[in-house]
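Kindly draft a sequence, keeping tokens residue-aligned:
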Amino acid sequence: MSQTLEDAEKLFQLLPHVRLGFFPTPFYKLDRLSEKLGVNLYIKRDDFTGMNLFGGNKIRKLEYLLGEAKAFGCEYAITYGATQSNHAMETAAACRRCGIKPILYLTAVVEPDEKDVRANLLLDKILGVELHIVDIKPGETEDEAEARSFQMGAERAAELNASGHPCYDIPMGGASVTGSVGFAHGFVEFQRQLEETGIRADYIFHATGTGGTMAGLAAGRKLVENPAKIVSVTVSYKNEAYVKKVEDLANEVLKKIDSPLRVTREDLCIDTGYFAPGYEQPNEAASEAIRLLARTEGLFVDPVYTGKALAGLIDYVRSGKVPQGSNVVFWHTGGATALFAEQEILGDLYQM
């Protein structure tokens, strides 16, 4: 390795940062599922990131995003997502911890029932956020509704800034350069755990949505020169423009921490084969993966993100894309509150 982990750590120390999570998150072997699949399967428990029982991977990003917001003297923070967005809920909770007022613009991909508010949307309401539900209009696509929510958020931020109440804008998923720095730092943490345990990872699987986690992992892997192949399983449709966006974002992360290294297209492995029929829409492979993990290890993943990523991992092993005996890491990014969401998200998961 051309630089020590201590050298890598120093690259992050000059950036504004607030402490929100509990690190390092646990890393250990899943013995029973390893035996069943014929690989050495390890799990990185970023569902344990904190700061509350419903935490997940976004806390890594929010430590830097809200650190920057506080450095700018912001009173408010705005972010976006679907009504059951993990990121939106975690942002709201982190804002409360930091004394910043949260504002959410949430697109109703699945229409919520105001008489039966569930999961992350329930937590948002308990947190007392300024909440704006953006319905998808007849003839409007999900992307068009999201774009409209961004415009509404920009107008609200301009209004607050003009009235002397500084507002910080956080993109969906925290997928900005500042946010993705948090996951590059997370990979340095992971590398230390690998070295301490003497494990050489061959593959790392994780769910990717907006691309911020993926960009951060790619930058962090490059930083510590880890040879593992990262397989990023998408939870919605993606095209080559998305790949280019992630590549550019990863390189902006490295630039922000003053590293001369660069990520290339060849460093990215994106698999779009497991998200269908769409975002927040269940499929049988993910439901099977959720049941399998629960019934072998007593652990839970969700039908929107981590269940689909785990389904990809299992299929790679069963199909031989991942050879038997490989050391495989599942990076659990959280999101189990979706197990308590609307029926449209759960599908037939509850069936035996």
Summary: Strands lie at 27-29, 40-45, 76-82, 101-107, 130-134, 167-169, 203-208, 229-234, 269-271, 327-332.
